[in-house]
């Protein structure tokens, strides 16, 4: 691959694009039962799985936006003469699942989503976790999203 296509800025853009595309695909899948008669929502585990993946992709998208700002900030201030960005750290912050493929110990997105799933399964075990947005457990996902956006503003 061309060396200019491997620069850290484009790697961050590529991962952000993948996260946003995954989020869009899951949004289409989750809204398809409204548009068509066939529905995955009749299968409980599949419905909860799609919702969980949608939450994960939303959190990862916001985290990749945060990493974009982090990379820009580090390029302007600290690492102006350093060529390589700390991508292992960036993968830990944003993807978590991808970071485990690189054998990096990390817990952030998977911990938030996993804890949310456990609490929803034990304390709000309704069909397809309907009404999940009104539960206090949603702050396990929206809290880190809001924090990443607020830190990005600073």
Automatic annotation (TrEMBL):
It is a multi-pass membrane protein. The gene is AVEN_153553-2_1. It is found in: Membrane. Residues 1-154 form the G-protein coupled receptors family 2 profile domain. GO terms for cellular component: plasma membrane. Keywords: Membrane, Signal, Transmembrane, Transmembrane helix. It holds the Pfam family 7tm_2. GO terms for biological process: adenylate cyclase-modulating G protein-coupled receptor signaling pathway; cell surface receptor signaling pathway. PROSITE patterns: G_PROTEIN_RECEP_F2_4. It comes from Caerostris darwini. The chain crosses the membrane at residues 55-72, 93-116, 136-153. GO terms for molecular function: G protein-coupled peptide receptor activity; peptide hormone binding. This is G_PROTEIN_RECEP_F2_4 domain-containing protein. Residues 1-31 form the signal peptide.
């Amino acid at each position: 691959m061309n060396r200019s296509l491997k620069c850290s800025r484009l790697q961050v853009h590529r991962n952000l694009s993948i996260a946003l595309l995954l989020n869009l695909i899951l949004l289409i899948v989750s809204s398809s039962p409204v548009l068509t008669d066939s529905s995955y929502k009749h299968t409980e585990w599949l419905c909860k799985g799609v919702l969980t993946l949608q939450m994960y992709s939303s959190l990862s998208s916001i985290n990749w936006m945060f990493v974009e700002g982090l990379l820009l900030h580090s390029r302007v201030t600290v690492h102006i003469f350093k060529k390589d960005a700390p991508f292992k750290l960036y993968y830990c912050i944003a993807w978590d699942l991808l970071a485990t493929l690189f054998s990096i110990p990390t817990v952030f997105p998977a911990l938030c989503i996993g804890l949310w799933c456990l609490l929803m399964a034990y304390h709000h075990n309704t069909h397809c976790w309907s009404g999940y947005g009104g539960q206090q457990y949603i702050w396990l996902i929206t809290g880190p999203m809001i924090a990443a956006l607020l830190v990005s503003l600073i």
